[in-house]
């Protein structure tokens, strides 16, 4: 059974005539007759009575007709929806991103993408990089923005990673309070031992940033002075604004909060590379490819002269 046969059934039922139905279908009458004969053989029942030049449906034909109309309508709907997907008029993208990226890069990306492609829905999963990598490997995400340094060898074998920018980590504090790092005002970066003895607001252990800072303190045999632990990004920034403690955040996040004083860490290794990740064994849909292109464009602007900060640089 194919769509051409079903169209023939519908047209013959509506016109009551093989020749007129063939004319409406723009095919030869013998061709239409062969299509219907083949379908009747396949179904094992005649679909039409041929009576004195008129054609009427048999009982089997009457049962098939509404099904044929429904299947043809479904086929038309499928064509329309696929055309809309191809034309980026409809669709859905499952995007994963770390919490720090959701408050900076992702917000800019989503605003621009929605303006360009309002018919495409984006589903966001906000998690740490390790969780996002697992979701990609399981097929639960189309794209993810991750911190490349946390990806495993197994993930690298399955995922296509495209580094898009590198950003230094900065220490933010209340601009209205006494400067905890006076030398930083003169352009001097903050040393790790200075940071360790300054009251800090730190993120949950699931944050990639928390993992990186804990490792840096251990490597330097330092114990940080923590006043608040487990704060999410928005809360940590608010606590820093109120002078409760300083917080270590990515440069792009600090650039969005002019009420905070920001100073880069002295250790250049305390930086992170942000990458777009997707499964290498799956061809991206057009919507996902368009989103990936837009992410690159936003990264270019963020890292251009006059962008958020000199501590954010383009990769690749």
The helicity comes to 40-55%
Give the uncertain stretches in residue-range form.
Answer: none
User: Which class of secondary structure composition applies to the elements?
Assistant: alpha/beta
The main β sheet shows up as: 8 strands, mixed
Q: Number of DSSP strands?
A: 12
Radius of gyration: 31 Å
- The H-and-E topology, N to C, reads as HHHEEHEHHEHEHEHEHEHEHEEHE
Q: Tell me the β content.
A: 15-25%
Distance between the termini: 52 Å
CATH superfamily of the largest domain: Periplasmic binding protein-like II
Assign the CATH topology of the largest domain. Answer: D-Maltodextrin-Binding Protein, domain 2
CATH class assignment of the largest domain: Alpha Beta
Number of helices: 13
- Return the CATH architecture of the largest domain: 3-Layer(aba) Sandwich
Principal-axes shape call: rod-shaped
Number of self-contained structural domains: 3
Let me know the average pLDDT. 88
Describe this structure in words.
The protein is α/β, with parallel strands linked by helices. It folds into 3 domains: 3-86, Orthogonal Bundle (Arc Repressor Mutant, subunit A), CATH 1.10.10.10; 91-164 and 272-309, 3-Layer(aba) Sandwich (D-Maltodextrin-Binding Protein, domain 2), CATH 3.40.190; 167-271, D-Maltodextrin-Binding Protein, domain 2. The protein has 13 helices and 12 strands. It has helices spanning 3-15, 18-25, 29-43, 59-86, 99-102, 105-116, 129-137, 153-158, 192-196, 208-219, 233-241, 251-255, 286-303; strands at 48-51, 54-57, 91-97, 120-126, 143-147, 159-174, 200-202, 226-229, 247-250, 260-264, 271-279, 312-314. The strands form 3 sheets. Strands 3, 4, 5, 6, 9, 10, 11 and 12 form an 8-stranded mixed sheet that branches. Strands 1-2 form a two-stranded antiparallel ribbon. Strands 7-8 form a two-stranded parallel ribbon. Helix 10 (208-219) links the parallel strand 7 (200-202) and strand 8. The radius of gyration is 31 Å and the shape is rod-shaped.
């Amino acid at each position: 059974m194919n769509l051409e046969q079903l169209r023939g059934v519908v047209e013959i039922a509506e016109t009551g005539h093989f020749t007129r139905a063939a004319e409406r279908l723009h095919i030869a009458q013998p061709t239409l007759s062969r299509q219907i004969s083949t379908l009747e053989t396949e179904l094992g029942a005649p679909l039409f009575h041929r009576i004195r030049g008129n054609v009427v449906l048999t009982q089997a034909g009457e049962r098939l007709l509404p099904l044929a109309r429904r299947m043809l309508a479904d086929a038309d709907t499928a064509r329309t929806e696929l055309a809309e997907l191809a034309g980026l008029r409809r669709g859905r993208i499952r995007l994963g991103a770390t919490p720090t990226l959701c408050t900076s890069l992702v917000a800019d990306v989503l605003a621009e993408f929605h303006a360009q492609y309002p018919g495409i829905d984006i589903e966001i999963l906000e998690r740490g990089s390790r969780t996002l990598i697992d979701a990609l490997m399981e097929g639960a995400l189309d794209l993810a923005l991750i911190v490349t340094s946390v990806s495993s060898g197994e993930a690298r074998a399955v995922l296509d990673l495209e580094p898009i920018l590198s950003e230094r980590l900065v220490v933010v504090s209340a601009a209205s309070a006494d400067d905890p790092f006076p030398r930083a005002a003169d352009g001097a970066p903050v040393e790790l031992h200075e940071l360790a003895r300054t009251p800090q607001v730190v993120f949950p252990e699931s944050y990639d940033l928390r993992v990186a800072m804990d490792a840096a303190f251990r490597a330097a045999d330092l114990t940080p002075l923590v006043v608040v632990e487990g704060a999410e990004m928005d809360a940590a920034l608010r606590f820093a604004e109120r002078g409760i403690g300083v917080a270590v955040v990515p440069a792009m996040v600090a650039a969005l909060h002019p009420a905070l004083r920001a100073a880069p860490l002295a250790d250049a290794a305390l930086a992170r590379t942000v990458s777009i990740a997707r499964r290498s064994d799956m061809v991206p849909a057009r919507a996902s490819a368009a989103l990936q292109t837009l992410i690159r464009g936003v990264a270019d602007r963020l890292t251009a002269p006059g962008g958020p900060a000199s501590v954010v640089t383009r990769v690749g």
